[in-house]
Each structure stands twice: as C-alpha cells, then as structure tokens.
Amino acid sequence: MKFKREKESRLVLILAGSFVLALLCETAAAQLPPLPTGDRNFPKALIPVVEAEYAFAEYSIAHGMKDAFLRFAAPDGVIIRRAPVNAIELWTKTTPAPTGRLSWYPIFADVSHAGDLGYTTGPWEFRDKPDDKDASGNGHFITLWRKQSDGAWKYEFDMGVSHAAPASRETALTYPASARVAAEKNKAADDVDASRASLLDAERALSKDASAKGSAKAFLAHADEAVRLYRQNSFPLVGIESARKALDGKTDVLTWHATKAFVARSGDLGYVYGTYESNAKAADADLAEQGNYMRIWKRHGGKWRVVLEVATPIPPPPKQ
C-alpha cells in the first residue's frame, strides 16, 4: 500500500508539473503575436526559421533567458558583448542566471534559396521583474539562424540595439518575395568558397568607398532598396529612402574590419561581422568611437547588396 501511495504521489507530481509547463507555454504564446505559418500562402522554406525564433522566444519567457540562450545556440553561436563571444561559453558562466524577463518576436524574416541560412528581426523588451507592467528596456534584435547537420535550426549570431519604447506595437510578420522560392528547387550547392570570397570582396569595396567618399555615401551605394539600418538609440530605418534622409549631411568616416563571413550553400545570402572605428583626429578624441557591426548581404544577379546593417558602439568598461 505504501508503494502504491508513493507511486500515486509521483504520478500527481508529474501531472502537476506537466500542467505547470503547459500553462507556462500557453502564457508565453499569449504574449506573442499569432504565428502566421499556418497560412497556406506563407513561404514553406521560411517556416522552420520563423518557428525556431518563436520557440526561442517562448522558451525564454517560460524558462528564463539563460536556459533559452543555451538551448537554442549553435556550438559556434556568437553574441555581442564588448566583443563577439561564444554564446554557450558566456551563458554557461553567467551565474546567477538573470531573473528579469526578456521577450521578443519577429516582424521580418528571410531565408536562403538552399533553405540552410535565414534571419529574423523584430522588437524586444525587458522587464526587471517578470510581473512588471512596464518594460525597463526596449529595442530591436537580429538573429542569424543556420540549419544544423541534424536538421535542427540554431542561432549562430545574435545582436541588437536599444531604443525608446515604441508608441505602438508592431505585429505583422513580413518577408521578401524571394522567400517564396522553394528550397527543394535549389538543392544544387554553389561554390561556397567562391561565394564567400566574392562576399568579402563586396565588404572590402564598401570599406574602401567609405574611406574615399564617407560612410553614408558608401552605405547607400551598396544598399538594397529594401535595406534595414539599425543604430543604437534609434528606431530601425527601413528602405533606401528612409536611410538616405537619415544619413543626409553626415560626413563621418568609419573604418570597417571584417572578422568572419558566412554564406548559404546556395550562394545568395550571407553575412559578415567585425569591428569598426571612427577616423576622428586627435583634437576630436572625445568623438572617437569603436564598435561592433554585422551586415547581411543578398546577391541579386551576381551582385551583392546590403539588406541589413547593425552597428553598436563599445560601451565604456564597467566601473571597478
């Protein structure tokens, strides 16, 4: 009888735990806009990318930031602190785990023709305490996702910017028309090494133009019509005309140093991350800036164009 009661007690605890987990997942899902992948018109190749981001966000709400960032990181996944760092190594050493609540969801996504590399971006907000009514921080994130050898999607690069709280909530998830290209029709692998080399050539050309013409003109000359531009303390700029208006009159020159470049198997989507620095003169030392950046490039008709750029300055070291 004692064994039976203990068995029944364990069963009750298991059921109770399952109920709590389901309730947590339900709560997390309720805080995110509806997942649009059930729409028959939604690009099939994009579904796993968007579902991975939603699962990542829901897990963070239900289980905390540390567990989420560890669970969904690729072995070589990178996040930005003062410099690029391995996500798993950093979060493993993060003790105690943060108790605040970070929530987010995608409003734009894209995927390579090979269906092996994709990215998502959207708003995030942070609450010091999970039950706080108002967020203490807001911004936009960018996540690069790569399909792993076992078929799972993991993030291999995560970066974002902070800005003021938005006046209204963005909810619609959009994507470029090219995302409708079915991955099954593009299984032929491109020469990845050649594609990576050509991407780095495009990156170097932009950096060279920045030195000769200024960063604003160089960016606009290499940007896609639908480009997204992210800067710290500013809302994202979407579209070449929005970027042009925001950059009008800016004459600063930034020097870009690429650290790594990654390209999809189909050779149509890739990204580069690295560091940048201003060329401020000694007299303008207070205006000098160093930071980290990431650019997502897309190749149309053999030519690489920037579809997203994010750059954030390195914050001052913490006070001792």
What does this structure look like?
The chain has 320 residues and is α+β, with helices and mostly antiparallel strands. It folds into two domains: 31-186, Nuclear Transport Factor 2, Chain: A (Roll), CATH 3.10.450; 192-313, Nuclear Transport Factor 2, Chain: A (Roll). It is built from seven helices and 13 strands. Helix 5 (192-213) packs antiparallel against helix 6.
Briefly summarize what is shown.
Helices cover 31% and strands 33% of the residues. It is built from seven helices and 13 strands. Strands 1, 2, 3, 4, 5, 6 and 7 form a seven-stranded mixed β-sheet that branches. It has a six-stranded mixed β-sheet with strand order 9-8-13-12-11-10.
Give the SSE layout:
Layout: H1 2-30, H2 47-63, H3 65-71, E1 73-80, E2 84-86, H4 87-93, E3 101-104, E4 108-111, E5 117-127, E6 137-147, E7 153-163, H5 192-213, H6 215-222, E8 223-231, E9 237-238, H7 240-247, E10 254-263, E11 269-278, E12 290-300, E13 303-313
Parallel strand pairs: 1-7, 8-13
Antiparallel strand pairs: 1-2, 3-5, 4-5, 5-6, 6-7, 8-9, 10-11, 11-12, 12-13
